[in-house]
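Please review the protein record below. Tell me whether the encoded fold seems credible here:
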Amino acid sequence: MATKPLLVTNFARNPPVFGDETIHETKISKRNLVELSQDRTFQFPYSQVFNSLCQLLNTSRKHGIIIRWKIAGRTLKMNNQRWLSFNYFTFFFTWGIFMPYWTGWLTGDKGLSVSAASIIIGAGLLARSFSTLILFPVATNRFSISTVMKGIALLSLVLMISYIPFESYSVLLLITVLFSLIYPNLMPGIEGSATILLANEKLDYGKSRSFGSIGYTVALIVVGLGTSLFQEKAIYWLMLAGIVFIIFSQFQATPLILKTEPKKQNSNTSIGNFKKLFTSKEFLIILIISVLLQGSHTSYYNYGFIYLQDLGINSFYIGLILNVAVLGEILFFAKADSFLANMKISTMYIWAAIGSTLRWVLVFLFPNVFVFIGSQLLHVVSFGYAHYATIQFISKRLKTSQIPTAQGMYTSFAMSLINALLTFPAGFLYEVSAKTAFLGMIACTIPALLLTLATKRKYNY
């Protein structure tokens, strides 16, 4: 039988066919290296399907094409959506261990008091805020965001291993500060990657972000099961395994635009990026609202696990209870792009402030497990709406060159600094009365609500 030539034209609109199987969803990303012209053709011998696929893959990489194909009933994907989803999952798996359980690990496995553990966590949060504000933007101004994230992942593994031989309070404090200078930068890294990809091509942010929530959910379940079987020491070993998982994900095929080296900038240019954002009244308003709304979760993140332990709940069931919030988050982010397509950013913030206030008031008024479970459903509003609104603002209102700096500022202030500052008074309130530590969080939600109402028309957001 003679070799049958396969002629592929207009790659963007007409998927090529091998026999009876079609290569689906072939497209050219908007801002990759080059665009293929309408008349560009590729010829592959039909009898050499596997060689053709290799050539096709090499050609796609050379020209910046993103390909998804289906052959013999199997789907093979080479797209940025999948890469983003996978990296969200791996990072938030570790975040689902570090955020809710690390205080519990310090008190349960290392034998520290709640106040001592709070000081360590607070110091780590301060280090995190400095790092994400200063070190991360500086690093991404000198290296590609892909290179920065790989370096962060490897250093995080080294620092995590250094926890093993030490029990001293001062050494644990030092390691935690160093670890907090490095590891949390993965968050602005992955969020910055998402906003860059979102600004350059049509990706479904909510879909990929929901994989982060799934990773967080899996972590809560696994840690709940692990602590019920092996006590708090399981928290550490699962965190260590999670970081290894992150390293694996970072060394998968990375979107080309994330490998792009930044333009050489001097220190004056880097400082100028901060100045432009700090002098933008619109951005400052958004940043302040984000800081207040995310800061209102401080008591929940630091003491939620311990609070449920104090209520006499088994560690395995604690993981399931904490998962209620994340399951709602998964559903929310999966549909957020369509559900919130026509909602203003200010409206999202208003709902987030109202939902958050109601959440902490309920926990204060009714200190029992059933009300706590019910309040978990409000996490979709208190966290989900607030975070999604901020990401939409950064990706749609700012220049691509400003995104890493803005993302670093958001992560630094809203995810780190405010939590660090509130950890100390929240720890004091928790030792006085556990439920009061949650009520104290409305000191953030009410001002956020008032500020949004006062500025939404003036800045049209």
User: Anything to note?
Assistant: The longest strand covers residues 65-71. The CA atoms of residues 297 and 441 lie 7 Å apart. Confidence is low (pLDDT under 50) at residues 1-54, 56-78. The chain has 19 helices and seven strands.
